[in-house]
Design a protein that fits this description.
By secondary structure, the protein is α+β, with helices and mostly antiparallel strands. The chain has a single domain (10-180), classed as Peptide deformylase (Peptide Deformylase, Alpha-Beta Complex). It is 19% helix and 26% strand. It contains three helices and nine strands. It has helices at 34-49, 53-59, 157-170, and strands at 66-68, 78-84, 91-104, 108-109, 127-128, 130-131, 133-141, 148-156, 179-180. The strands form three sheets. A five-stranded antiparallel β-sheet has the order 1-2-3-7-8. A hairpin with a 6-residue loop joins strand 7 and strand 8. The structure holds ligand K2U and nickel (II) ion (NI). The site of nickel (II) ion (NI) has 5 residues, from helix 3.
Length: 196
């Protein structure tokens, strides 16, 4: 009996040079269509699969903590993320539509070791200056029920970096456009560093 498995794979993630990655994505019309809900579910499934060692092995996945719709060639303002904070205290799992960053702290941070991107070659990394704290508004989607709720979220540290990385994708911005050689006088985000 033929088993047909429909799941996103790395082959579905378009690479830098594809025009869609440099486009401003379009607003998602609400109420959310069944098609867009299905897409968000598939995107979250890819991110979650990429965090499961067996799935990574079996389907040759690159570990990731976020994915934006333009990366699978869907130029719509929506992304998913699933990331722990650097103190491993909480998990931030969002499927968000039409997000808008409404405020950013003056204070900056960056991911120690640099950022990466599923739409760049695996060996491409670099330091990216990010806001240490952000406040964003958007429509959070409950992927189980399909319920959509306009929400204001505040993020900082690593989850904040992930959000800003995915948000940039919706504006056609790739992290390689904004890497710095050095970021002196900025405190980096490093894992396991929950300051006492
Ligand atoms: O948008 C994407 O390409 C997914 C990125 C998101 C991301 C990049 C840099 C910093 C935070 C998030 C992938 O998660 S890149 C791979 C990765 C995996 C674990 C930790 C950092 C980067
Ligand atoms: Ni990326």
């Amino acid at each position: 009996m033929l088993m047909v498995i429909v799941m996103l794979l790395m082959k579905d993630v378009i690479q830098d040079g594809h025009p869609t990655l440099r486009m401003r994505a379009k607003e998602v019309s609400l109420p959310l269509s069944q098609e867009d809900l299905k897409t968000l579910r598939e995107m979250m499934e890819l991110v979650e699969n990429s965090q499961d060692n067996e799935m990574v092995e079996q389907y040759d996945l690159r570990p990731s903590v976020g994915l934006a719709a333009p990366q699978i060639n869907i130029s719509k303002k929506m992304f998913v993320m699933k990331a722990m904070d650097e103190g491993f205290q909480n998990e931030y799992r969002y499927a968000i539509v039409n997000p808008k960053i409404i405020s950013m702290s003056e204070e900056s941070t960056y991911l120690e070791g640099g950022e990466g991107c599923l739409s760049e070659p695996e060996d491409v990394t670099g330091l990216v200056k990010r806001a240490k704290r952000i406040k964003a508004k958007g429509y959070l989607v409950d992927l189980d029920t399909g319920a959509v709720k306009e929400t204001v979220i505040k993020l900082s540290g690593y989850p904040g970096i992930v959000f800003q990385h995915e948000y940039d994708h919706l504006l056609g911005i790739m992290f390689v456009d904004k890497v710095s050689e050095f970021l002196p006088d900025i405190e980096p985000v490093r894992f396991g560093s929950d300051e006492l």
